[in-house]
Amino acid sequence: MLAAAICCSWNAGEAAKIRIDAPSNGSYVLPSVNVAFGIVVADAKEAEQVLRERQVCVEIVSLYFDRRRVGCVSVESNTVNMNRMPYGEHRIHLCLAEKNVVDVPSCARVFVRVTPLLPAFTPATKAQCSPRAPRAECTATLPSVSVCVLVHRGGDAFAKAAASWHESGLLRGASETLVFLQEWPLDLDDEMARVRHTDVADARISRLPEAYGMNVIGSREQLGISGALERLVRAARSDIILFLEEDFGAYSDAEMAAERLQAAVRAVACGDVDVVKLRHRKRPGLPFYPYVWRGREASMLSIDTPYVSNHSALEVVHWMDEPPFPREVLWKCAESLTCAFSTHAGWSNNPFVARRQFLREHVLPAASADWTTTIEGALNLSPHLWDDKCFVLAQGEGIFTHADTDRGIVDQSPYENPWDANGAVARRRRSIDDWAAQ
Question: Are 400 and 348 contacting, i.e. CB atoms less than 8 angstroms apart?
Fold first, then answer.
């Protein structure tokens, strides 16, 4: 929209200004972002010339990727459309520029938070998490467990992991072992129909011993982690879910694995915690991004990184028996676990135990809307879906070690070092500082 303005201060030679009409600064937006703008001209007589000689160019500044020049649109469009925006906080620049001229006479900026699901409302103040009341002695019968496994490659790593699950007794102790097979070329009328793993004409799983007793569901397409988790949770018959990816083997022996799994199940079933993380505390395997915080633990509660640094606070127990955090950050809780609220413990697709109902209510809605199909960014970068919910997560001694023997370490880890002064994270921070100073 073009308008003549008498309200604005004008620089010498400045003929037009741009303003952003929507979204408002600091608001949540979906990954398909529409930024509405208007043009204000100093002299209405010049409106036609402004339309003819100027265009609106778009740039995004973010901690999650390098500064991006998206492109330019005509002044008449009144809207800039951006699709598949990454989750998290981004700063969008709209600049009114003369065509084929480098100088930019007028810019408007807006700060947005991209999320898979919009909040019903934005609270005026940040949520304050309160400890749960101590429970009475929980004597409920230990519920059954569905072991839910995501398989894509089905290579050497999966074969070794499955053998370790069998040897540790985890599969025998579960009510069922349900495997989701990505890109499975079998058509079934019922998408939830189960096939015994030895009857599946797919070498990724049919070669495993019959004693493993796995049932298979799957999809002809690649659904990513989000789609696979959704199908597994819908198909599971037990109230408690143990989720595993194909390259996490059981490090513990049978007696210890059973004991640790029972403790995790009991903590979740009794309502002490919402999620118990089961990656091995002392032998998590590599890559393990939280290790970048070793020796810098105190900084993680204040520094800003692409991975929401405060979400790694619970992970410090992997290398410290007594982390240097106050009780409102980490505390000892049921079953000899260490607990944290979701403000200081991020969602992870690493091995975990949780109630099926919790996943249905709080994880699957975001997973279903997540265009990246990875879940982690969709939840961890959306405070209204994670931090503000004050979920309780726990870490104990753990059971599972990551060992992807099918790929090299470099191919497995997308993480960047936030401490490298010349690295990508530092470069992006400088861009954000420059943005704030304008």
Answer: no
| Amino acid (one-letter) located at 321 | D
Question: What is the SS3 assignment for 60?
Answer: strand
Q: Is the pLDDT of residue 33 over 50?
A: yes
CATH number of 145-407: 3.90.550.10
Q: Which among 155, 154, 152 has a CA at the least distance from the CA of 219? A: 152
Q: Quick one: tokens of 266?
A: 């009991």
CATH domain 2-114 topology: Immunoglobulin-like (2.60.40)
What residues does each domain of the chain span?
2-114, 145-407
User: What is the length of the chain?
Assistant: 438
Share of the chain above pLDDT 70, in %: 89
Round to the nearest angstrom and report the end-to-end CA distance of the chain: 25
Q: What is the pLDDT of residue 79?
A: 94
C-alpha distances in Å from residue 113, one per residue of 28, 374, 428: 5, 18, 17
Identify the three-state secondary structure at position 318: helix
**CA separation (Å) from 4 to 16, 342, 434?**
9, 49, 31
**3-state class (DSSP) for residue 235:** helix
pLDDT tens-place string over residues 254-286: 789 999 999 999 999 999 999 999 999 999 999
Task: Give the pTM.
Answer: 0.91
pLDDT tens for residues 183-223? 987 755 565 678 888 888 888 998 899 999 999 999 989 99
Return d(Cα 341, Cα 151) in angstroms, integer: 30
> Which residue matches tokens 């970068």?
381
The torsion angles phi and psi of 327, rounded to 5 degrees, stand at: -65, -25
User: For residues 64 and 43, what is the distance between their CA atoms, to the nearest angstrom?
Assistant: 40
Average pLDDT over residues 152-175: 94
The CA distance from 28 to 382, in Å, is: 9
Our measurement of the distance from residue 111's CA atom to the centroid of its chain's CA atoms, rounded to an integer in Å, reads 20
Among 275, 278, 308, 277, which Cα is nearest to 293's?
308
